[in-house]
TrEMBL record:
PANTHER family, per database record: OUTER MEMBRANE PROTEIN RV1973
Keywords noted in UniProt: Membrane
Protein name as catalogued: Mce-associated membrane protein
Protein species of origin: Planobispora longispora
Subcellular location: Membrane
Gene Ontology cellular-component annotations: membrane
Top-level division of the source organism's lineage: Bacteria
Amino acid sequence: MLRRLLPWLPGLLIACLAAAAFWVGGDLRDAQAADDDRAAVLRAAGAHAVNLLSVSHRTVEADIARVLASSTGPAKAEYARNAATLRQTTAEEKVVQTGALRAVGLVALEGDTARVLVAGDAVIRWEGSESPPQERFHRWRMEVTRTGGTWLVSKAELVP
């Protein structure tokens, strides 16, 4: 009986190794996809924070467009509602605000929704004013949602 199985043994061994490689490869692909999603979520939240913090009276239209492009749902609607006031105030006061991302951390990622904590700072100056620049420190709790294959901020809530 062993003599009859011996010719089949190398083929069986190869088939078993191939099945194991396929199974492990699938797990690796799943792990890589999860890592890619985590990185994309953090990039989206960080970019949105910098967009919120960076506005200039010279580029206010493009600045507003960047924030709207990096957001969706309630976050986008709220920002769009306040855009006219931001546009007017920025132009009248000749504001130049430069933002910097300080930290971003993933709280949870479940399916197409993630919760993220973000910290960023801004330096605000007013062109033509003798007022010294001011530093402002901002912290957000953001919800990031996959929309059409892209991660966008759907909620941005300032936290103390």
